[in-house]
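Anyone able to model this chain together with uridine-diphosphate-N-acetylglucosamine?
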Amino acid sequence: MTKRILVTGGAGFIGSHLVDALVAQGHRVDVIDNLEPQVHKAKPDYLNAKAHYAFQDVRDPDLFDGALGDVEVVVHLAAMVGVGQSMYQVTRYVDANVGGTARLLQALVEWKHGVKKLLVASSMSIYGEGAYTCPTHGPVAPPLRDAAQLARKDWGTHCPDCGTSLAPVATPETKPLQTNSVYAVTKRDQEELCLITGRAYGIPTVALRFFNVYGPRQSLDNPYTGVAAIFQSRIKNGQPPVVFEDGDQSRDFVSVHDVVRSCLLAIEAGGADYRAVNVGTGTATSILDVAQVLLRLYRSPLRPSIENRFRAGDVRHCFADISLARRLLSYKPAISFGDGMRELVEWGQKTSARDGFTQAYDELNKKGLLEG
Ligand code: UD1
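re: yes, here you go
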């Protein structure tokens, strides 16, 4: 059935793909997006002509007042997304991510509306270190690696009881949260604010904990975005991808198309209402592998530059246990890492990329957020 759906951040990377899918399903889609200049050089040419756009900022105090009238579904994706940048732009991140969510919720509380579903984009970053197992002590949730360990360039995680090297395992939603960046705190806040308000007012709400999302339309101009996009713009500009630590750290890279599928399922089905659910692939890929696969696909003679330096707040490993999403939403990732990277490169080859990495790197360095 046709629904009226509001997508905040609907001109962005994930949002624009979701808007396309919702329009294709016949829904009426409204978008709020501020076309953040750090992400968009200009109005993107991929915007769906059948959606309705308001180019406004979720920080505008009155933005949502009266705007939710006959909206049935709200998907709240608008957010600032740079982990490193959040560590020195605290006000900007808290205002946009926590403040923007608060304004949306305030409007849901104060104004008459017919919203029957709220989705909010949460993030794996709220877990901090992923889940691990120790051969002697079984499952452990280790603390963040400390400065002395990192100064020795000992990048792995160790059992807090016996010091043995730990092996990463898939991270379930039950792992205690361990926020370790301003960005992560804002994502945890967004998730909890939405779930608490949703429960209190009977608005079925789902927090989707996205793992490392990649795919076409991820800004190649934004040096604060995810690693696959950063590496790609380096390679396109004839520069080697810069790999922090030793490159063995890993993440769960999930295609934007699978992420969109998870949103559609959470809109349609009620199984995950009032819950937080992981959205990843269940598979870990090392950062060095990402660099090498991209270099190969670009047929580049360059080699990754392995820095043996540490970016403040980074975790060693985190990949998703997706059994809850499978069970509650019948979610099943459909795009393999290889196919997803090929699609990414096909798109990247046709897209211009400004390499702002050096500037971002210098900024981290100056602020003492790169160690070693
Ligand atoms: C990323 C996103 C975060 C999102 C989360 C879950 C960014 C900046 N972070 O966090 O918004 O919530 O996924 O989807 O988009 N690395 C390099 N070289 C680089 C850049 C990164 O080696 O040039 C390494 C990092 O040190 C880290 C790994 O790559 O070990 C992943 O980094 P990043 O892409 O920033 O992702 P997360 O921090 O996992």
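The two ends are 56 Å apart (CA to CA).
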